[in-house]
């Protein structure tokens, strides 16, 4: 009697990728894509400058790329997009405003900081050093990008109300007209 043939092992279920520990080289090699939604309240550093608008969420996505280069070893790229909504104070009317932040950037990753600094100066690319153990914290990177997307001086495109005028200011335009009798008195004093 032959032993029952074991069912072929099913391929190991691919582990869900942790965006806080993204294996960058593998992600690039497999042209990986990843996207998700986080509560904006989780982005504490962003929230310190720009609190989330209500129960705003951060929508984000990332794509890996292994870019072939003629005569050189292929490059490791990561493309990141994110958007969310934050509360700001308009610097013109001092009223509250809800602002949509959009971030989008492509990063090229190289071996170490030294090479990253050199290439960042030499080229137009945004160059970063590969993180330790090759694991990237995408949460942190997305938060950095949204912080960079904050306007230096937030302002409504059109303020909702006209600027308040100071109340009870005397109307300086209303100057008393010259008194004709005064002018006459001056004439009368003139000796003949
Ligand atoms: Zn305003």
Shape: elongated
- SS class: alpha+beta
The arrangement of helices and strands along the chain is: EHEHEEEHEEHH
Q: Please bin the fraction of helical residues.
A: 10-25%
Number of helices: 5
Spatial gap, N to C terminus: 152 Å
Backbone CA Rg: 32 Å
User: Can you list the ligands bound to this structure?
Assistant: zinc ion
Low-confidence stretches: none
Secondary-structure blueprint of this entry?
Elements lengths: L21 E2 H6 L3 E7 L4 H6 L7 E13 L2 E18 L6 E15 L2 H10 L3 E4 L5 E2 L1 H11 L31 H10 L3
Parallel strand pairs: 5-6
Antiparallel strand pairs: 1-7, 2-3, 3-4, 4-5
This protein binds zinc ion.
Zinc ion (ZN) binds next to loops.
Short synopsis of the structure:
The protein is α+β, with helices and mostly antiparallel strands.
What do you see in this structure?
- This protein is α+β, with helices and mostly antiparallel strands and 192 residues long.
- It is built from five helices and seven strands; from the N terminus they run βαβαβββαββαα.
- It has one domain (19-156).
- Zinc ion binds next to loops.
Q: What are the salient characteristics of this protein?
A:
192 residues; five-stranded mixed beta sheet; binds zinc ion; elongated; 5 helices; alpha+beta; single chain
């Amino acid at each position: 009697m032959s032993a029952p043939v074991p069912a072929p092992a099913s391929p190991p279920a691919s582990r869900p990728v942790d965006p806080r520990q993204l294996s960058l080289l593998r992600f690039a090699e497999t042209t990986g894509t990843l996207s998700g939604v986080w509560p904006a309240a989780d982005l504490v550093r962003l929230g310190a400058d720009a609190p989330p608008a209500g129960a705003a969420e951060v929508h984000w996505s990332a794509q890996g790329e292994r870019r072939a280069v003629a005569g050189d070893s292929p490059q490791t790229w990561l493309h990141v997009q994110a958007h969310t909504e934050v509360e700001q104070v308009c610097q013109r009317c001092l009223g509250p405003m809800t602002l949509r932040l959009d971030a989008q950037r492509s990063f090229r990753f190289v071996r170490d900081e030294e090479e990253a600094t050199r290439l960042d100066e030499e080229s137009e690319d945004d160059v970063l050093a590969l993180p330790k153990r090759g694991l990237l914290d995408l949460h942190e990177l997305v938060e950095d990008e949204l912080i960079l997307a904050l306007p230096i001086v937030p302002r409504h495109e059109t303020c909702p109300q006209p600027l308040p005028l100071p109340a009870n200011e005397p109307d300086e335009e209303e100057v008393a007209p010259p008194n004709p009798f005064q002018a006459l008195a001056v004439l009368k004093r003139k000796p003949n």
